[in-house]
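Posted in: Structural Biology > Protein-Ligand Complexes

Title: Requesting predicted complex, iron/sulfur cluster in pocket

I'd be grateful if someone could produce the 3D structure tokens for the following input. Sequence and ligand are given below.
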Amino acid sequence: MKKNVKASYLNDFKCIGGVCEDNCCIGWNVEIDKKTYAKYEKIKDKELTKYFKKYIYKNDVSYDKNVDYALVELEANKHCPFLNQEKLCRIQAELGENYLSNVCSSYPRLINEVDGILEYSATISCPEIARLALGAKDGIEFKQKNAGNVEDNIINIIVNTKKEDSPLLVKYLQELRGLTMGILKSRDYTLWERMLIIGIVFRKIQELINLNKAEEIPGQIVMFSQKVDHRGFQREVKPLPINQSAQLEILKEISDKFNDSNEIDSERYLSFINEFYKGIGAGKKSVKKESRSAALKQSNAELSNRYNVLYKDFYKPFMDEKDYILENYLVNFVFQSLFPMTENNQPFESYTNLVIRYSLIKFNLIGISGFRNGLTETLVIEFIQSFSKGLEHNYNFFEKIGEYIQQKNYDTMEYMSILIRN
Ligand code: SF4
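-- Reply #1 --
Done. Output follows.
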């Protein structure tokens, strides 16, 4: 029996299946592991057997037989063919939970193993998890307990921090991730200050690694924790730049370039992106040829003005009250992505990735607030859920943006501050 650490919101989670507004059995590939596939071959029920033969086929490019040995062919409307009229899974209803594939029975849970301890969290792409996790006013807790049997569940990442030859960030994973989550939960600071402090920390950690002075990392971690407790970062945070026009320009460039509807299969997310463009007043204008550059200048100024107004009138007042929603999103991401191992074991690159998520969510919500005339908790949670479903399951999205940020030399603390501060 292994020990486990479990995110608090999982205690209350129950799949709402048929009434789920963004059901996981719609729009995504359904993967069947080898053991479950063998069980389906032995089924006696004639009708189900007919369905299995018609819709399940072996996957020629399987990367792991415990995950995607076979696939389910979706219907033309992208529904899993095993969903009945009430949008409930027929396999589960007629054969029981034990007949669900590893992927179907695991989702939305995510399991990592760190030093033999199983870490349970869940993806925000599930609307019910999004409500429970993001809506937790007092924040998300991670508690350690003795685990049950987890034999058939998919373990996402296995890490041993004690191994002599582990990369540096693996060795210090627990301390660095703990420090990051501690900063994110330090509510004496505003969320944007917390994001900047994390940047200052990881700029230093990156510097120590580059200078081959990794032995100083443990001492720095202790020093950083004390500094957070005593508000010692104020002097470093204050002079970091704030430039809302540049923020708008960079994030709009990213949004225009990477929100490719051919690659994003969440209708809900794409519909929010439409609302964003309408709300911010972009894409509505027809610019006459003869005055293109003057009009463009003016339209950029108008855009920037509207962005600032929407931030001040809608986004800021809402987040002054409810920034725990974004805090919870970030804490959950840091925990389950084993931050700062997230990006090629480069701490500042992982931080950049965190900032991209934070700033894109903020940016989109500012635009959406213009379309909807304000923000509500339900709306913000729905948007972040769709963001997670549309982008976080699209493996290349954040990687491509990360590369773009590097090409443009935006990967500095100054640019991170421009993306974070308003
Ligand atoms: S998305 Fe979540 S609540 Fe909805 S059907 Fe899937 S597991 Fe259930």
